[in-house]
Design goal:
alpha/beta, 12-stranded mixed β-sheet, 12 strands
């Protein structure tokens, strides 16, 4: 296996690209954007699929072997499936995964299976239709839940991502754990993050330790699983349950020391840390005539300058902490 040439100043190799294909979404989750939406980028400012493929090829040539497709909601962008077919043909790319809200994934299930995309993360913050509606501002719970079960029955590896917050979905934590009893899936509980596209964010205090304490009050035995070095979640399993659960300290940022991720937004912004400022805009460079060699050097330089952790990166950023996650690219 080729080692990534994208190495930061702390010796971490970046081999995982999170590629946002759109900033648009058919949900309005409170923790991502305000109910009225955001000022979405004009279509001409989005990377074309040809540009995305060219840049993805450059990343893979430098040792990136995993690409996660994010948004916004990836499946709302026309042309996404032909692009994924093309991407899947990159020889050195070992894995393509997708993060979705689950409303449209069932429509593309056979195509995803055919091209070998078998791992899908679904954002699902409640197992109660009323709470789901309050969180997403959309009445789509049945569609999403049926889609999750359909993917599981078709052999897909599913992770459910649940953002935990006071007065939103605390009642759902234990039902999510119970969902893993008979279903071979993983539920990951995430701390809230301050990227909601407005200035009304208030962190509710449900950090990773509080989430775990809440779960441990309901289960006598919890087995801690062995995690990959670069895992963002600490993973567990209730003895006898088919599935597992994990907790992601996305606000506390305790996983930064082993982070292997680099991000490219739908408008071409390159970020070596979600909390930090853009290192470059690859769209602008592409459209101004930069060569592949030029772009490769920019990627190498950006990786080399990556900060130690999300707190150090955030200190450099001039952006509002309330930038929408849909713009940042998940």
């Amino acid at each position: 296996m080729k080692e990534s040439l994208l190495v930061d100043q702390h010796g971490r190799r970046l081999n995982y690209l999170r590629l946002s294909v759109t900033d648009r979404c058919n949900f309005r989750c409170y923790y991502c954007m305000p109910e009225e939406g955001i000022n979405f980028a004009p279509r001409k400012e989005l990377l074309s699929f040809d540009e995305m493929y060219q840049l993805s090829s450059l990343f893979v040539g430098l040792g990136v072997d995993k690409i996660r497709i994010t948004g916004g909601e990836p499946f709302v962008r026309n042309g996404i499936i032909p692009f994924l077919y093309r991407l899947s043909e990159l020889d050195a790319l070992k894995e393509i995964t997708v993060t979705s809200n689950g409303t449209l994934s069932a429509q593309h299930q056979s195509a995803l299976k055919e091209m070998g995309i078998r791992k899908i993360n679904i954002s699902l913050d409640s197992l109660n239709a009323e709470r789901f509606h309050r969180i997403t501002r959309r009445d789509s719970f049945d569609t999403v839940y049926r889609g999750v079960l359909g993917l599981l029955n078709d052999g897909f590896e599913i992770k459910l991502n649940c953002v935990v917050a006071e007065n939103k979905n605390i009642e759902d934590i234990i039902p999510f754990i119970e969902l893993t009893k008979d279903h071979q899936l993983s539920v990951r509980f995430l701390e809230e993050m301050p990227f909601n596209g407005s200035d009304t964010f208030g962190y509710s205090g449900w950090d990773h330790q509080r989430i775990f304490d809440h779960i441990s009050q309901n289960y006598r035995d919890i087995n801690k699983l062995i995690n990959e070095d670069s895992s963002t979640s600490v993973n567990y399993q209730i003895p006898g349950y088919l599935g597992s659960f994990g907790i992601i300290p996305s606000f506390s940022r305790t996983f930064c020391g082993t982070c292997n991720r680099i991000r490219l937004s739908a408008t071409g912004e390159l970020r070596t840390c979600l909390y930090g400022p853009p290192a470059a805009n690859l769209r602008d460079l592409l459209r101004s005539g930069a060569t592949n060699q030029d772009l490769q050097q920019i990627l190498l330089d950006a990786a080399a300058k990556r900060e130690k952790d999300g707190f150090a990166a955030e200190a450099l950023s001039q952006e509002s902490v309330h930038t929408s996650m849909s713009v940042l690219g998940g």
